[in-house]
Amino acid sequence: SVTIFCPFPNRDVGKIALVDVPGLGDTRLGDEQLILETLGQEIDLVLFIRRPDALRFVWEKRDTELYKTANQALNNLENRSFLILNHVCGRNNNLQACEALKATHQAKHLKTVRCEIIDCSNAEEANAVLDSILDYLAANIKALDDQYARTYQDRLNQLQQQIKAELVKARQNESSGMAIESLDDSDRFDALFDRLWTKLARSLEELVYDFDWERQNEENNDFQRQVAITIESCKTDTGLPLTPEQEPDIEQILDMRGNFGDWPSTYSYYLHGIRTHLTRKFESMDMGLQKYVDLAKSIVTEVLIETANLDNLPNLSKLQGNEFLKNAIDTIPPH
Question: What is the pTM of this model?
C-alpha cells in the first residue's frame, strides 16, 4: 500500500483525495481484499473507467465482477459511482464501441449515477467531467452519508435483537452451565478475560518462537519442487508473441501496432499480457505450500481449543484445522 502526497493545482476543490485501486484484470494475490478495504474505509465516490476495444466491444465478466466487488464494500453504490467510457480518437477510433457499451451497461446491472463518453487524453473533457462529479459530491454528500449511517444503524439494531434472543435462549438452557448473570459484573468479566488472554498470548508467542527458531531451517521439499516446476513452465510458456516454431511473430506484432497506432501502446499491451500470464503461473506455488500451511493451521487450532476452549462455541465444535479457523473468523467479530 503506497500513499503519495503532491500539490494539487485546483485549490478551490478543497480536501479531495484520489485513490487509485487496481482493477481485476491483474489477478495479483490480495488485490480484491485491498479493493474492499479501501472502498469500505476511505471512499465517498467511485469512478469506473473502461476503454472499449474498437473491434471487440462487449462487457466482460471482469467488469461485472469488479462492480460486484465494489458493491460489497460501499453502501448505495449506484448513487456513489460514475462510469466513464474512454473514447480513443484517431486511427483506432472506438466511438461506436463506447456507444454500444453505454447503451447496454444497465442491462448488465452496472448501475451508476451517470455514464459518460469522453476522451480521457483531452484535458478539457476530463476536467469538465471531474467538475460535474465534484459538484454532485458537494450537493449530495450529506444525504449519502446520512443514508450510510442509517444503514449501519439498522444493522446494529438487528444485531442487538439477535444478541437479546441468544441471551434468552442461554438463560433457558440450564444444561449449558453458563452463569449469564455474571455478564453484568464487569469486574469479574475483566478478571476472567485477563486470565484467558494471558494464557492465550503466551501459548501463541511460544508457537511463533517454535516456528521462527525450530522450524525455519526445515526443508520444504513440496514447495521446492513446485518452485522448480513453475520456473520451468515460465521458461517454456512465456506469453510472448511467438510462431509455432518459437520465433518472434513479427506479423502479429505489426498487426497489433497497426491496431493501436503507435509502438508505446503496443509495447504496453504486450507487457501487461505477459505480466498477467506469468503472475498466474506463480499462483500455483500455493500448492507447494499447502501441506505446510495446513500443518500450521492445525497447530494454531490446537492452541485455540486447549487454551481458549473455543471449540465450545456451537459453530466450532468438532472442527479441526482450516475448517475450524474459517468458521472462527465467521463466528467471532473482528473488533
Answer: 0.46
